[in-house]
Amino acid sequence: MIVGLDIGGTKIEGVGLVKVGETGEYNTAIVHREPTEKGCYHDFLDSVLKVIDAVASHGEIESIGIGCCGSVSTDGLMQGANVTVLNGRDFIGDLRQRIDVPIAIANDADCLALSEFQDGAAMHAERSCVAVIIGTGCGSGVIINKGIVTGLNKLGGEMGHNPLPNYSPEQDGAPVKCYCGSMNCAESFVSGTGFGRTFSEKYFSADSKAIMALVAQGDSRAIAHFDLYCDQLARTLANIVNFVDPEIIVLGGGMSNVDAIYPNVQAKLNQYTFNKAAKTKIVKNVHGDSSGVRGAAFLHLL
Ligand SMILES: [Zn+2]
């Protein structure tokens, strides 16, 4: 059994997956959740071990993959995690002292890419795919030659913090400074948060769900804004095509559940690609909220 853990701000989810014959697909043998203990690092570590123990009671563990906020710095310590008790800790080292199986860690976008590449929306891609999360923020997981691109600075896939391509204030709204320090990051426009922000600046305060409800009611302002959003997303994804040219692009995160995105963005994509006849398909993820925990379990398979 291979095990995936998804560590979030409110809960830790563990899953045990078992291979089904030789099809390349996996069945879920057990799912176990515990609340994330954030009071201190040792309580946190205990809650992680509790999930692993519960999963281990359903079969022998071959490996553990962890999808987690933040990243591991070059000195092995956690950084940038919103479960802040983790930061500055040798989390993986501490787990390895307690559990004698291979342990790996990656961020949520990498896990989404892996999950969909292994047995989801990108399972027919041979060597490459890019998974883009459009949710609270915007990040991506890049698989090239069947391997995740993390990079020298652990910045592989951080396309959400490139500037929005072809940005103009007339079209896209007033310049905006991102929390990362850069101006007009794509994330500020194409994340679900960004979609709500740009609409609220132009018309009245509304979040992405409220705007899509207005679109369904035929509100012309919401329809025009959704069309602009799809154009912004097409520009952002065309940059991925021009740079990496993956076999397929899979979308995840809250905005990926808006079905009208796919035909709309697909129709606009080739306005911005270098070759105007690009065949790249933009598709919805298959595994939804389970992508994080499933992708984590697959970390050892690449
Ligand atoms: Zn940024």
Structure keywords:
binds zinc ion; alpha/beta; Nucleotidyltransferase, domain 5; five-stranded mixed beta sheet; 22% strand; 2 domains; ROK family protein; globular; ATPase_NBD; 10 helices; 302 residues; ROK_cs
Short description, anyone?
The protein has 302 residues and is an alpha/beta fold. It has helices at residues 41-56, 91-98, 108-119, 169-172, 187-190, 192-202, 208-216, 220-243, 261-269, 291-297, and strands at 2-7, 11-20, 25-35, 63-68, 71-72, 78-79, 103-106, 129-134, 138-144, 147-148, 248-252, 281-284. The protein contains ten helices and twelve strands.
Describe the structure.
- The chain is of the alpha/beta class and 302 residues long.
- The protein has two domains: 2-111 and 290-300, ATPase, nucleotide binding domain (Nucleotidyltransferase, domain 5, 2-Layer Sandwich); 124-285, Nucleotidyltransferase, domain 5.
- Helix content is 34%, strand content 22%.
- The protein has helices at 41-56, 91-98, 108-119, 169-172, 187-190, 192-202, 208-216, 220-243, 261-269, 291-297; strands spanning 2-7, 11-20, 25-35, 63-68, 71-72, 78-79, 103-106, 129-134, 138-144, 147-148, 248-252, 281-284.
- The strands form three sheets. Strands 3-2-1-4-7 form a five-stranded mixed β-sheet, sandwiched between helices.
- The longest helix is centred in the last third of the chain and has 24 residues, at 220-243.
- The radius of gyration is 20 Å and the shape is globular.
- The model has no long low-confidence stretch (mean pLDDT 93).
- One of its GO terms (molecular function) is hexokinase activity.
- Keywords: Carbohydrate metabolism.
